[in-house]
Amino acid sequence: MIKPTAIKVPKAGELVAAELRRRIITGELAVGDPLPTESALMEHFEVSRPTLREAFRILESESLITVLRGAHGGARVLRLDDTVGARYTGFLLQYKGTSLADVYRARTELEVTAVGMLGALGPRALTSRLDRLDALIREGTSLVDDAKAYAEHNVGLHRTLVELAGNMTLDVLTRMLFEIIALHNVVFIAERRPGHEGPANRAAQHAWTKLARLLHETNTTAAQTHWRLHLDHVASYMIGNSEAALVDVLP
User: Fold this and answer.
1) Which of 65, 188, 192, 223 could pair covalently with 214 via S-S, beta carbons 3.0-4.6 A apart?
2) Considering the domain boundaries, does residue 118 fall inside one?
3) Across 187-234, where does the E strand assignment appear?
4) Residue 148 belongs to what domain range?
5) Where are the alpha helices (DSSP H) in 120-197?
């Protein structure tokens, strides 16, 4: 006998929020666009003002809209931001007691996969994408003695590497992890003496240069092996043998 299962019936405010969310995500309502007036939306959805405002609260909590009060107020569409998803992901990982080492391991697997996908592209697509990576690597050469600037630049390089692989899901997942890693970079640098990062930054530059060379040579297997070793060294340098939880090391 099949046991009865309670079915949650969405509230009217949730249904209104779902429809407005669909319009925002599909681009029917663009960034910066004002939503129709409350009166127009109430008439369109045939709901009360409290129900409509509940829908607004849901969308505000998801950082999809902002609601300004006053005579010139109203709801406007916000730009979707990686940091919103990353912030929630960070909270969830902290809640689950996730270690920083766990985050770095996941980052390694995602990036090594991205290197493999990038290396599998055809020659024309690979060359044009590597041109962009080469330019960023050269830019990092002048930043190695500036710990903060190089850390920010390096995070951008890692993000670009995954982006160039051309898989949107992989890109979004990695960007969320890098929001967490970028926060850890800030804490790590603040706890060290000035100049401490110089040797590590120069080693990173060497690793990036070698990665680009292997990809130009279409030696994908060697590129993946090299990148895994490099990221393992990075994790060892940044966290050592620590199994500290995110909640202990992030602000």
Assistant:
1) 223
2) yes
3) none
4) 83-249
5) 123-140, 147-164, 168-190
Residue 198 sits in a domain whose CATH number is 1.20.120.530
Among residues 185, 126, 122, which one has the least CA distance to residue 150?
185
- Same domain as 169, residue 56: no
Domain boundary among 77, 111, 129: 77
**By the 8 A CB rule, do 60 and 67 touch?**
yes
Cα separations in angstroms, 69 against 27, 75, 78, 219: 25, 9, 16, 58
**Phi, psi for 66 (deg, rounded to 5):** -125, 140
Domain boundary among 77, 105, 131: 77
Is pTM beyond 0.85? Reply is no
Burial class of residue 191, CB neighbours in 10 A (0-12, 13-18, 19+)? exposed
Stated as kind and residue range, the H or E segment containing 75 is strand 74-77
Instruction: List, in order, residues 6 or more apart from 162 with CB less than 8 Å away.
Output: 110, 111, 114, 170, 171, 174, 175
pLDDT in tens, the chain (251 residues): 555 555 566 789 999 999 999 998 888 998 888 999 899 999 999 999 999 999 999 999 888 899 987 666 789 998 877 677 777 787 888 888 888 899 999 999 999 999 999 999 988 889 889 999 999 999 999 999 999 999 999 999 999 999 999 999 999 889 888 888 888 888 888 888 888 889 999 999 999 999 999 999 999 999 999 999 999 999 999 988 777 777 676 66
Structure tokens at 156: 């951008």
Is the residue at 197 inside a domain? yes
Instruction: Find the radius of gyration of the CA atoms of the chain.
Output: 23
Q: Residue 243: exposed, middle, or buried by beta-carbon count in 10 A (0-12, 13-18, 19+)?
A: exposed
